[in-house]
Every structure is written in structure tokens, then in C-alpha cells.
Specification:
alpha/beta, Rossmann fold, Arc Repressor Mutant, subunit A, 3 domains, DrpA_SLOG
């Protein structure tokens, strides 16, 4: 862990040569060679030896084009930063601010970072809830201009609150304008929000957002690939954007000028194959010129509502059959699937689908009943399912059916309450509620969820 912490300060973010040597040799061995002032030829020989043992490492060496000259130039960048007291000072500062250090071998390391390959961070310094970094429901990046208009801030607020209510985390850069509004809306909605910083997590920047960033740390997380004490720079801001794109499932640009830094985040998202959305604005607004450019030249999806944002990740809701659709006919010799996952429509890779049925599924506790649904009226889940015509065959036995059965039109219930009733994890329930909300079959009130009255 000490070596990973050291490399996070030795190499600048996105340094592919550092990424190669750490990936091939390991952080400990690479740091030892750096401290021992090994010559470039020794580095190249070590990388070549590792490459002969690993096809992946050998391919990376060839891909980066590592030569003695490249290694020599890298060593010139790294050696002045090999100061043990600086690393120790960063770790002490992290302890003072209760920040944690995540490395690629940590179980909570965000999987999206692996898509960055040699440009992935060596470590992530997290101040706040470390589990928020790789949110179970998935994260959505909402970014835009620092010089936002009232229109842009309003749209950012609506989108952020909407995706938060649907179980996603909101990820942004903590800056003025759109970023700040996205974070605030997520906090007000009671959701999870993550701010990626271009400096150490102990240096809250911009200073005017000091209180906001403290609230984010209390309810979500502040994250940086740079050690505590590191100062934000223009380069680090640009490199920070690749992390915003990598750890999220989609990126939405709300407002951006023709040369806005938000377009840099959009470019990283597109390069990583992440869905990209852009909010249109007035054709006379210079703060929307970048969004219009994304729509016109980069095949971004037009986004105007939270449902549009969720659709970027889940795909069109029309592609999923309604729960009211009759089950397909089965031949007399057919066998009812033993696993609910085998009959669920939609992509298993989506954040609200993955693990929606199999995760933490357990049989209902015998004898547990709800006093509010034992009076014999027609408001019980079973009665509602029958009266609405919803299918009750084994082929329709999915997480959404189970969540729908746990809700009534009369009572408001929290996700944790629904989870107990449905025998699912809270994560699976929140995912199913998001899908049912898109289909118009449930609605959320101030006190909880219930079935739609329509």
C-alpha cells in the first residue's frame, strides 16, 4: 500500500509509462528500482523479462513503444519526487481527515477504472463513504459549464434529482456552475453523490465550495488519484475528467461552450464506450454551443428528462415487455425455468439489472405478515395483482413482480421495507423500483413508494 501511495504522487495522472512499469513489475518492485536508481537498460530488461512471462505485459510494452530513451525521460520525471517524508506526510494527512486509500487489488476498487488500462490511477484517495465510489446502482456523470445560466442550473437540478431518486449516484467535479448544482440536487434528494477532485482530498477546491464539499464527504465521497497535499492544476483537471467518465455508466453534458472542459469529459466517455448525452439549449446561447456540437458531430443522445438519462444506461423501455403482457405459450412438454433470471428481458449488464434477482435472494420468513394487509380488503398485493390482470405464472416470477407485489396503492413503503417483504436486497429493490417507475407502475411520495393509481 505504501508503494501505491508513493506512485500516486510520483507519476502525474495518466502517465502511461508509469502505468506500464507498475502493471508489469508491481508497485513495490517498481518503487524499489526507482529508489535504487536502476539504469534505463535495467528497467527495460526487467520489463522484457516480465513480458516473456506474460503475453499481456509484452503487448503493453510494444503498445507504449518503450525504449531506453522513453524510460530515461520517465526516470527524470519521477526521481525528484521520490521523497519518503512526502509520502508519510500524505498518509498522516489522510489519517487526520479520515481518508482511505484504495488500490487496484482492493475489493472496492471501481471496475470502470480498469477500462483505462495503462492510464488507470495507481490508487484512489477517498474521503467519505468508500462504498459510494462504486455505487451499487451505478453512477451517472452530470457535468457542464462553470459559467452556467439559470436554464442550465435548473436542468442540472432536475436531472440530478431525478437520477438520484432512481437509485443512481451523481458524479461530477465539484466545480462552480453545473457541477455544483448537480451535487446539491443529489444531496437534497437524499441520494449519493461523488466529487472527483483535481488535488488532494484534504484541499477543498474551489474554496467557495468548502461547505458543499464537506457535505459531499459526509453523504457521499470526495475522490482523488492524487495524494493529500497535492495542488490542483490545469493538467490535473483535464486528467481528472477521464476518471469521471470511467467510473460512471453514462455521461451527460448539460451546458458547455464550444471549447469547454466538459467536452474533454465527453471525449473520454466516448473513447471508453460509455453512453453520452447532451442537453440542447437555445441556439443563441454560447454556453450550449458545445452541447450542440456533441449532438451534431459526435452522435450524442439528446437528453431532456431524468427518464432520458436512465434510458442511456438501460436502453429504451419499449424494448422491455410490459408486466401486463401475457406470458408466451408453452408446449405441453416445456419445463418452467428454475431461475427467474432466465426469463427476465433486457440487458443483464445494466446497473439496475445486474444481480436484480439473484443478489441476496432468500425465501420469505414464514409467519411474517403485514397488519395493514390482513384485513381482507382488495388492497392486498395479491388482490391487486389479480384485479390488474398481472401475470402470476412462474415465467413472470422476477424481481419486478416481487417488488410490485410488496407494494399497495394505499400504504407508502420504504425500499428497506419492500426488501423485507419481497425477500430481496435493498439494492435489488431500488433497481426494480427504478424500472417500474419508468413503466409508470409505481410512484414515489415524500414518505415512500406505492403502486400507481392509474
Amino acid at each position: 500500500m505504501f508503494a501505491s501511495a508513493a506512485w500516486s504522487g510520483i507519476a502525474e495522472p495518466g502517465d502511461s509509462v508509469a502505468g506500464l512499469v507498475v502493471a508489469a513489475l508491481g508497485a513495490d518492485r517498481a518503487l524499489t528500482m526507482l529508489i535504487d536508481r536502476s539504469e534505463p537498460a535495467q528497467w527495460l530488461a526487467a520489463l522484457g523479462a516480465e513480458g516473456s512471462d506474460s503475453d499481456q505485459a509484452g503487448g503493453d510494452v510494444g503498445q507504449v513503444g518503450v525504449t531506453v530513451e522513453v524510460i530515461a525521460a520517465a526516470l527524470e520525471r519521477w526521481r525528484p519526487r521520490v521523497v519518503s517524508r512526502v509520502v508519510v506526510g500524505s498518509l498522516r494527512s489522510a489519517a487526520r481527515f479520515e481518508a482511505r486509500l484504495l488500490t487496484p487489488v482492493h475489493p472496492l476498487w471501481p471496475e470502470g477504472c480498469r477500462d483505462l488500462d495503462l492510464h488507470a490511477p495507481h490508487a484512489l484517495w477517498v474521503r467519505g463513504n468508500v462504498r459510494a465510489v462504486d455505487h451499487p446502482g451505478g453512477g451517472i456523470a452530470i457535468v457542464g459549464s462553470r459559467d452556467a445560466t439559470n436554464y442550465g442550473e435548473h436542468v442540472a437540478m432536475e436531472l440530478s434529482a431525478g437520477v438520484s431518486d432512481r437509485g443512481f449516484s451523481v458524479v461530477s467535479g465539484g466545480a462552480y456552475g453545473i457541477d455544483g448544482m448537480a451535487h446539491r440536487a443529489a444531496l437534497v434528494s437524499g441520494g449519493t453523490t461523488v466529487a472527483l477532485l483535481a488535488g488532494g482530498v484534504d484541499r477543498l477546491y474551489p474554496a467557495a465550495h468548502h461547505d458543499l464539499l464537506l457535505r459531499i464527504a459526509a453523504r457521499g465521497a470526495l475522490v482523488s488519484e492524487l495524494p493529500c497535499g497535492a495542488s490542483p492544476t490545469k493538467w490535473r483537471f483535464l486528467q481528472r475528467n477521464r476518471l469521471i467518465a470511467a467510473i460512471t455508466r453514462a455521461t451527460v453534458v448539460v451546458e458547455a461552450g464550444h471549447r469547454s472542459g466538459s467536452l474533454n469529459t465527453a471525449g473520454h466517455a466516448a473513447a471508453l464506450g460509455r453512453p453520452l448525452g447532451a442537453v440542447p439549449g437555445p441556439v443563441t446561447s454560447v454556453t450550449s454551443a458545445g452541447c450542440h456540437r456533441l449532438l451534431r458531430e459526435y452522435d450524442a443522445t439528446c437528453v431532456t428528462t431524468p427518464a432520458d438519462v436512465v434510458e442511456l444506461v438501460l436502453g429504451p423501455t419499449t424494448d422491455r415487455p410490459s408486466l401486463l403482457d401475457p406470458p408466451p405459450p408453452r408446449s405441453s412438454g416445456s419445463v418452467v425455468p428454475s431461475s427467474p433470471e432466465s426469463v427476465l428481458p433486457g440487458s443483464a449488464g445494466s446497473p439496475m439489472r445486474a444481480g436484480a434477482v439473484s443478489d441476496d435472494v432468500s425465501p420469505e420468513a414464514p409467519g411474517v405478515t403485514d397488519p395493514s394487509t390482513t384485513s381482507g380488503d382488495a388492497d392486498t398485493p395479491a388482490a391487486e395483482a389479480a384485479s390488474s390482470g398481472a401475470g402470476t405464472s412462474a415465467a413472470d416470477d422476477g424481481a419486478e413482480i416481487r417488488v410490485l407485489d410488496a407494494l399497495t396503492r394505499r400504504s407508502r413503503r420504504t425500499p428497506s421495507d419492500v426488501a423485507v417483504r419481497a425477500g430481496l436486497s435493498v439494492r435489488a429493490v431500488e433497481a426494480a423500483l427504478g424500472i417500474l417507475l419508468l413503466e409508470g407502475r409505481v410512484e414515489e411520495t415524500e414518505t415512500g413508494w406505492r403502486r400507481s393509481r392509474t
